[in-house]
């Protein structure tokens, strides 16, 4: 399926995503079909004879510089470390003239950036357009990267070719913008002084040029690269300087050593400068024009100027195009020029950003409103083809293990196998369980959002909708070895259901925590496998209310499994948590009243406590 680029660009983002995804699927299908025919004996093209021993094998070798770039883009941290160990040069230059740090900033690879900075990479390196890694991190709103760069002492006031500092590219209201503004404030720089600094350059150049004019020095002097004052003023968009130069007789169409005229530079850097000599410029051939014009309006402007120039060649009486039309063209978006991203790249960035845009906005609200200043971080991985192992083309033990390991390395701890959700215990805190993430997974129709990765919240959501559709209780079966994360998963399910059903301004979370404390005190104990192992069977059930056509309650039934643990302890194992909590927390008087001064007696008391307390907690109001 071929689709016109302009048409694709004009579609709304969601539609474009779906269309592009479909096109990718078609491409892959075609590819597999072609491969199949090629592999059939005698099918497809001629089968080449196997190479004889005297024939040289041709191998394509990529430089370490190329391989490390690829590893950074893929977030393959182990590979980055290996390549650096193998003497890949951390100072490798990328195609934009920037450093590997620029690449890390674009792909939000904080780990690789940290490693490279540790190995002495200069954080202030600028690419061809004088962008630092901080400019890129700001444009992409990669807050973690911005924080890292600030901590390592990046210069936040470095200007790019357009005279923009990184803050100019940070979208107002985003986390990045907040962090940068705070940093500037802490360093005694306010916005007005920044404004002065930015207007300083054109005004300094203007006064220098006026001085040159008054002293009668030629305005067409060139530096070693053949660059004139007009080149500089055009590239930087200093309109007043351009008018003074042209009015005072500067050559309007000098070429530098690379045959670039001031107009080429103005077009490349998106500077909308109208001056009357535009239409005296030679026609730029099509491919060249497309590659230099920073935006469509600028390309249209060049086209009009060219048409007029051609007409005036034939007939000099044709009037020049109205100059105000050129002046009034809107300036291009600030980030479109230096990044010059292809549509697919822009989409893949958008894919990442858009998915969590609403989370980020909400996070920012939480951020401003949070008096403790704790940032609620949300970091979900974008959806990937291996999100559902059932859809893999090869299903063997090793391929499944390989995929699981790969996902685990990227903190993608959840994976679908059809409708079953597989969890690999990360044994570390991941920022994927906040109520904001819960809200992301809420679905009004019951259909899960394909742009969100697998998550325990999506299973909870599915159970909720199944309950509504089937109008009968639903149950979760959490199975796995001790310490695999069943209890935690159960807590997350209940938390999600609480978020889904909480009335405004009423949070069930504190209640849930209190309930869990009681459950864990009486039903959990330290084992060799798990410091907080549940020695009970829990049944989590969702009950449907026919009248209200909604979830009546989520109930956790707890059945004590190991009463024997109270009286008999297996080697290296503990009693139920409540035993230690009482021994630690009670006052001496309370202890003596409960006969807890003596260790052996304590066991008897615990027997009584555990047998009497039937823990059946129900989280109502959901
Ligand atoms: N999703 C998770 N994110 C972070 N850490 C987790 C997660 N799941 C489990 N853990 C960690 O692993 C520990 C053990 O998990 P948990 O108690 O849920 O295991 P379990 O399967 O219920 O074990 P048992 O069968 O012995 O009760 C937890 O105390 C927690 O530190």
Overview of the structural elements:
ANK repeats lie at residues 96-128, 129-161, 225-257. Pfam families: Ank_2, Myosin_head. ATP binds at residues 480-487. It contains 28 helices and eight strands. A four-stranded antiparallel beta sheet has the order 3-6-7-8. Strands 1-2 form a two-stranded antiparallel sheet. It has a two-stranded antiparallel ribbon with strand order 4-5. It is α+β, with helices and mostly antiparallel strands and 622 residues long. The chain has four domains: 5-35, no CATH class; 64-189, Serine Threonine Protein Phosphatase 5, Tetratricopeptide repeat; 195-339, Ankyrin repeat-containing domain (Serine Threonine Protein Phosphatase 5, Tetratricopeptide repeat, Alpha Horseshoe); 347-562, Kinesin. Helix 5 (100-106) packs antiparallel against helix 6. It is elongated and about 105 Å long. The structure holds adenosine-5'-triphosphate.
């Amino acid at each position: 399926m071929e689709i016109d680029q302009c048409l694709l660009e004009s579609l709304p983002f969601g539609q474009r995503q779906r269309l592009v995804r479909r096109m990718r699927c078609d491409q892959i299908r075609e590819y597999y079909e072609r491969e199949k025919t090629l592999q059939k004996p005698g099918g497809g093209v001629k089968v080449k004879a196997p190479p004889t021993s005297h024939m040289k094998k041709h191998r394509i070798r990529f430089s370490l510089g190329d391989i490390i770039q690829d590893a950074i883009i893929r977030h393959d941290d182990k590979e980055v470390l290996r390549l650096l160990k193998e003497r890949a040069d951390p100072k490798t230059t990328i195609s934009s003239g920037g450093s590997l740090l620029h690449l890390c900033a674009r792909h939000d690879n904080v780990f690789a950036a940290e490693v490279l900075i540790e190995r002495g990479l200069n954080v202030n390196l600028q690419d061809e357009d004088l962008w630092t890694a901080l400019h890129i991190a700001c444009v992409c709103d990669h807050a973690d990267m911005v924080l890292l760069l600030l901590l390592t002492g990046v210069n936040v006031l470095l200007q790019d070719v357009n005279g923009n500092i990184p803050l100019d590219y940070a979208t107002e209201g985003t986390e990045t913008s907040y962090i940068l503004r705070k940093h500037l404030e802490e360093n005694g720089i306010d916005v007005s002084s920044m404004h002065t600094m930015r207007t300083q350059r054109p005004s300094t150049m203007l006064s220098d040029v006026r001085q040159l004019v008054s002293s009668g020095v030629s305005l067409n002097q060139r530096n070693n690269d053949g660059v004139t004052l007009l080149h500089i003023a055009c590239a930087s968009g200093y309109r007043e300087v351009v008018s003074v130069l042209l009015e005072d007789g500067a050559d309007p169409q000098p070429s530098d050593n690379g045959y670039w005229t001031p107009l080429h530079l103005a077009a490349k850097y998106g500077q909308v400068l109208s001056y009357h000599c535009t239409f005296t410029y030679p026609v730029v051939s099509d491919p060249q024009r497309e590659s230099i014009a920073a935006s469509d309006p600028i390309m249209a402007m060049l086209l009009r100027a060219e048409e007029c120039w051609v007409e005036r060649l034939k007939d000099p009486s044709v009037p020049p195009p109205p100059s105000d039309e050129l002046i009034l063209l809107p300036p291009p978006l600030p980030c479109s020029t230096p990044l010059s991203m292809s549509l697919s790249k822009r989409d893949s960035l958008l894919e990442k950003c858009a998915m969590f845009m609403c989370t980020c906005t909400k996070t920012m609200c939480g951020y401003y409103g949070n008096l403790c200043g704790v940032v609620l971080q949300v970091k979900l991985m974008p959806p990937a083809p291996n999100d559902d192992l059932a859809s893999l083309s090869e299903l063997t033990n090793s391929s499944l293990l390989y995929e699981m390991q790969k996902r685990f390395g990227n903190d993608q701890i959840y994976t679908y196998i059809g409708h079953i959700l597989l969890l690999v215990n990360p044994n570390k805190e991941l920022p994927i369980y906040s109520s904001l993430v819960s809200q992301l997974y809420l679905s009004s129709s019951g259909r899960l959002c394909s742009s969100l990765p697998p998550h325990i919240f999506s299973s909870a959501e599915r159970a909720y909708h199944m309950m509504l559709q089937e109008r009968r209780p639903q149950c979760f079966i959490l199975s796995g070895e001790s310490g695999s994360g069943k209890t935690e998963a159960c807590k997350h399910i209940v938390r999600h259901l609480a978020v889904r059903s909480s009335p405004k301004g009423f949070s069930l979370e504190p209640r849930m925590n209190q309930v869990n404390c009681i459950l864990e005190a009486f039903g959990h104990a330290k084992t060799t496998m798990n410091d907080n192992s549940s020695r009970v069977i829990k049944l989590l059930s969702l009950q449907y209310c026919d009248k209200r056509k909604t979830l009546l309650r989520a109930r956790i039934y707890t059945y004590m499994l190991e009463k024997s643990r109270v009286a008999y302890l297996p080697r290296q194992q503990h009693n139920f948590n409540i035993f230690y909590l009482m021994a630690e927390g009670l006052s001496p008087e309370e202890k003596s009243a409960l006969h807890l001064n003596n260790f052996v007696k304590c066991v008897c008391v615990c027997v009584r406590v555990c047998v009497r307390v039937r823990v059946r907690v129900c989280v109502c109001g959901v």
